[in-house]
Amino acid sequence: MSHYEVKAGPEAYLPPAAASMGNVLPDPGQAHIGGVIVPEEEAYEFAARKFLEAKVPTIFPGPLVLWKWNEHAAEKAKAIRELANELPMRLIPMADYRPKYPKIDAAVEINPNHPNLTIWHNKIDVCIFVGVHCHQANLALKIIRGGTDCYTMAMCAQAGHEDACLSFRDATPEKIRKLTAAVKKLKSEGVKSQAEEFTQIKMTREGRVT
Hints:
Layout: E1 30-33, E2 36-39, H1 40-53, E3 57-61, H2 63-66, H3 71-86, E4 90-91, H4 115-122, E5 126-130, H5 134-147, E6 151-155, E7 166-168, H6 173-188, H7 194-205
Helix pairs in contact: 1-6, 3-6
């Protein structure tokens, strides 16, 4: 029996949970891409390439890194900022999980109950969740997969997220920095950031670049 491929949608009004389709989470030292278990190192390069190919790559940091509840969280937040600066990537926080629809300001915040609104409003094509509690991440990832064509990733502090297109587990500041290093490596090899070019074209059209 072939595995269920977790890929960018739109898939269905109510996409199935990947776990219910037989997909399993990676073991330590592994990640998954599209539901296929791979070595973690392979996933770093794959994710970095996806980020560089994206026009609007975006990080959705959750409460576990937004709030400085310990020094480990603060170090993760610093590593996330370094990753965002390297590409560059947008940072749109998921500060809490209370429903905000229809008052959500999709330009500045992601609502886990209606994340598709933020994806659509900002034309996000690739995103990564970091520091989002597992139950809320799985809910939002399914909604994004069901209603948008955004490629989703998750850097999970626990065992990973089978409902993301790509997922890492056991997230640490060091692992986030490995992802940043993978981006730097590809850029040094001549892979250009589409986000940089897209931003420059947009600014030129708006008259902000001479």
